[in-house]
Amino acid sequence: LAKTTQPISMDSYEGQEVNITCSHNNIATNDYITWYQQFPSQGPRFIIQGYKTKVTNEVASLFIPADRKSSTLSLPRVSLSDTAVYYCLVGGGSNDYKLSFGAGTTVTVRA
Amino acid sequence: GAVVSQHPSWVICKSGTSVKIECRSLDFQATTMFWYRQFPKQSLMLMATSNEGSKATYEQGVEKDKFLINHASLTLSTLTVTSAHPEDSSFYICSAYPGLAEETQYFGPGTRLLVL
Asked: Which residues of A have a CB under 8 Å from any CB of B?
C-alpha cells in the first residue's frame, strides 16, 4: 500500500481557504487518490477522489500534478463545522482496493 | 446514494461475552467490505477484508478466531467479537466497496464497543 504523508495539523479562520498537501511518492499506476473527512465518533465521509489533473465538486477541489506524487485538497471558505480530521489515501486495483489510513490532518477552524 | 449502515451504534457488554456488529450497504451491492478499528486519538486500522461468499482475509496481527467475519450477501457483512475483553473496547467501522475501479469505499457510522 502506498504510504502517504500529510501535515499533522492546520489552523484556519472562518471564510478562509484551506489547502492540505499530501505526498504519495510510491503511488501505483492504477491507484486513485481519495480524501475523507472524519468527525469524532463518526465514520469517515468521502470528500473527493481523483486520478490526475484537477477535480472539483460542491465541497472541495483536488489538484494532482502530472507526476501524481502529491495532491492538494482545497477547501474554499471554511466554516467552524469544517473542523475535522482529513485523510489522504491512495488505493485501487493494485492492492485489492485496500486503503491504508495515515495519521491524517487535524484542521481547526476558528471564528 | 452510497449509504452504509451499522448496527448497533453502541454496545456495552460484560467481559467474556460475544458481540455481533452488522454492516449493510443500503443502496448498492458491495463485492467487498472492510472492517476497521479505531482507538481514541488514533487513525483507522484495517482489520480484515470481507468478500461475499468467501473467507475473510485478516491483516497481520488480527486474530481471526477472535474477530469472526461473515459476508453472507452483497449487502451484509457481520463482525463478531468473541469472548470480548476490556482491551477490545474500541470504535469499529465498516466500509463497503461497490467494485468498480473508479469507485471508492463508503464508510458506516461506526459502532462503539465498551467491554466491562
From this structure: 30, 32, 34, 36, 41-46, 49, 51, 87, 92-93, 96-104
Could you tell me the three cell numbers for B19? 458481540
Per-residue pLDDT tens for B18-28? 999 999 999 88
- Tell me the pLDDT tens digit for each residue of B58-85: 999 999 999 999 988 999 999 999 999 9
**Which chain B residues are closer than 8 Å to A101 by Cβ?**
36, 43-46
Name the phi and psi angles at A93, rounded to 5: -65, -15
Neighbours of A53 (CB within 10 A): 11
Residues B42 and B10: their CA atoms lie apart, in Å, by 19
Cα–Cα distances in Å, from A99 out to A95, B9, B80?
8, 23, 22
CA distance B90 to B79: 13
